[in-house]
Amino acid sequence: MKSTIFIICSLFISIFSFGQTTETFETESHGSTSFTDNGVVFNILSHVNTYDIQGNYPNTGWSGTANDNRYIDNSGTGNQSASSSFSIKTTSNLFKVNRFWIYAAASNLTLNVTGTLTITGKLSGVTKFTQTKTTGFATSLGTTNGYTLIDLTNLNGQNYSNIIIDQLQITAGGNYQYLALDAFTWVKDSNIVLAANEVKSSTKEPSIYPNPTSGSLTIKATDNTKFEVYSQSGQLVRTIEARKGVNETDISELPKGIYIVKSSSESYKIIKR
């Protein structure tokens, strides 16, 4: 009995930890505005001040357990300004954020100043969550090399670690002008973001109609084909197994909106009204 319980617990641990990875930027190039982790390319977008990979100051980062050498920061900015802001964004995958570490300071790297940090998660440009941290920042180097843990499993009493996004935006306020981010722990979501150029238009007879539809769909398949229905956020919401010929199906249970119906060879934008 004990061994059975142990096996079940181990399976649960494996399921929930699958896909989680921590990027410490140690293999990334100094000055780069992108990084790759677990096969996913993330872009570093500068909104206020200029952010990129910093690799010129060894032992000034924090891996979550020890000092390290590389991280994202805005030290290359000539005149750092308040409300400094940047994003980590990918256009090829969706992800969830577990935690990361932030060095928040004045432009001269002084930690003992007051400020705020706003963490925002977005999906296809739509804000999925936003919270502002106002207290609990490191005010000295201490045991974490001056970095503060931002834990999305309990951010201002809320859990945001299970929300799927494609962009994480960090914005400083108050007297925080310098930001450094390290030990970015995230989970790769299995679904991909469907780019606009994946939706094909054609002058031949449509394979899926009517469009718009209130629910009923006719699918003309040249072979036995699996069609996947994705929401605008890239979430798989329905799978349709179509046989060669004319197939009738229904998506009445789905909310009104725009969906992508995708096979291995074609994609169609469908409006559900």
TrEMBL record:
Domain of life: Bacteria
Signal sequence, renumbered to the chain: 1-19
Secretion system C-terminal sorting domain mapped to chain residues: 208-272
Pfam families in UniProt: Por_Secre_tail
UniProt keyword annotation of Ion transport present: no
Keyword tRNA processing among record annotations: no
Keyword field: Signal
NCBIfam families, per the entry: Por_Secre_tail (TIGR04183)
Protein's UniProt name: Secretion system C-terminal sorting domain-containing protein
Organism (species): Chryseobacterium ginsengisoli
Organism classification: Bacteria, Pseudomonadati, Bacteroidota, Flavobacteriia, Flavobacteriales
